[in-house]
């Protein structure tokens, strides 16, 4: 009886790796657990390598600061099917040297987030644009190395781009942003926040070319004025969200038509702002009939 029970025993690693474990079990484990699991034994290490070679999504943001760059290179050295790559929180160590091979062998990447990766250069963005022509979503927030030439390369080769975050990419000026707008007509989400170089020219070009725009972040774009916001209202009927906090030259006269379309705007109307200030001073909100 004991012999029969022993024969019925099935260990996890006895299950088919590529047909069962990789697509139906390992795909639900966080990356940090997979990294720990491969230290258990040589067999588990081999299993995790099979998984990493076949995974479509690779998100390093939870463990970015803790992973050595050598481990990153080892984990993705055999992967040629990546569709999504997130490198947030990897700013301390990731460089072009680690990324260029990954981009070169993963032409099917659709989403890449390099936000905050300060040690990269324009070569990484050019590599993405040349290798990953099906790219749809790109995060470049706080990547001050992004310049006009690399953004133009992206626009030339990734015309299907749907969202791009250029927050605090302070080298960029109107000419590069206008070029992007003319080439990437499918843009639905765009952030140009925290860039003092952005003017009405950029916003108007985006509005006239990207008619399907749904989200636009202009936070801190001090040179944007009412004129371009009115153009945005005219040409972008699908707009859902607009951020204009600290855009001191944008007033309620241009925002009101968007409010009437239920566009979410991060700046309160003047009367409501006054009520909030009054409440802070008095400690309570006085009743005011807003329908008078």
Automatic annotation (TrEMBL):
Its main location: cytoplasm. The keyword Repeat applies. Residues 79-232 form the F-box/LRR-repeat protein 15-like leucin rich repeat domain. It comes from the Eukaryota. GO terms for biological process: SCF-dependent proteasomal ubiquitin-dependent protein catabolic process. Residues 12-49 form the F-box domain. Pathway: Protein modification; protein ubiquitination. Keywords: Cytoplasm, Leucine-rich repeat, Repeat, Ubl conjugation pathway. It holds the Pfam family DUF7885. It is found in: Cytoplasm. SUPFAM superfamilies: F-box domain, RNI-like. GO terms for cellular component: cytoplasm; SCF ubiquitin ligase complex. Belongs to the FBXL15 family. Part of the SCF (SKP1-CUL1-F-box) E3 ubiquitin-protein ligase complex SCF(FBXL15). Substrate recognition component of a SCF (SKP1-CUL1-F-box protein) E3 ubiquitin-protein ligase complex which mediates the ubiquitination and subsequent proteasomal degradation of target proteins. Acts as a positive regulator of the BMP signaling pathway. Required for dorsal/ventral pattern formation. This is F-box/LRR-repeat protein 15. The lineage of its organism: Eukaryota, Metazoa, Chordata, Craniata, Vertebrata.
């Amino acid at each position: 009886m004991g012999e029969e029970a022993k024969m019925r025993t099935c260990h996890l690693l006895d299950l088919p790796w590529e047909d069962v474990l990789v697509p139906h079990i390992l795909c639900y484990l966080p990356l940090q657990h997979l990294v720990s699991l491969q230290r258990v034994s040589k067999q588990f290490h081999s299993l995790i390598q099979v998984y990493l070679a076949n995974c479509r999504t690779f998100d390093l943001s939870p463990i970015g600061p803790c992973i050595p760059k050598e481990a990153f290179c080892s984990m993705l050295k055999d992967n040629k099917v990546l569709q999504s790559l997130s490198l947030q929180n990897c700013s301390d160590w990731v460089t072009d040297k680690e990324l260029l091979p990954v981009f070169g062998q993963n032409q099917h990447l659709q989403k890449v987030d390099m936000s905050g990766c300060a040690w990269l250069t324009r070569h990484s963005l050019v590599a993405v644009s040349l290798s990953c022509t099906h790219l749809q979503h790109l995060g470049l927030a706080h990547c001050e190395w992004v310049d006009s030439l690399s953004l133009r390369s992206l626009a030339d080769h990734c015309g299907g781009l749907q969202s791009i975050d250029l927050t605090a990419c302070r080298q960029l000026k109107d000419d590069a942003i206008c070029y992007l707008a003319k080439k990437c007509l499918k843009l639905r989400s765009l952030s140009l926040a925290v860039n003092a170089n952005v003017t009405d020219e950029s916003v108007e070009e985006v509005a006239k070319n990207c008619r399907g725009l749904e989200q636009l972040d202009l936070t801190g774009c001090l040179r944007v004025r009412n004129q371009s916001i009115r153009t945005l209202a005219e040409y972008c009927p699908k707009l859902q969200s607009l951020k204009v906090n600290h855009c001191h030259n944008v007033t309620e006269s241009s925002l009101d038509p968007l409010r009437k379309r239920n566009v979410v705007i991060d700046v309160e109307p003047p009367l409501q702002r006054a009520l909030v200030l009054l409440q802070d001073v008095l400690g309570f909100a006085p009743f005011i009939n807003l329908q008078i």
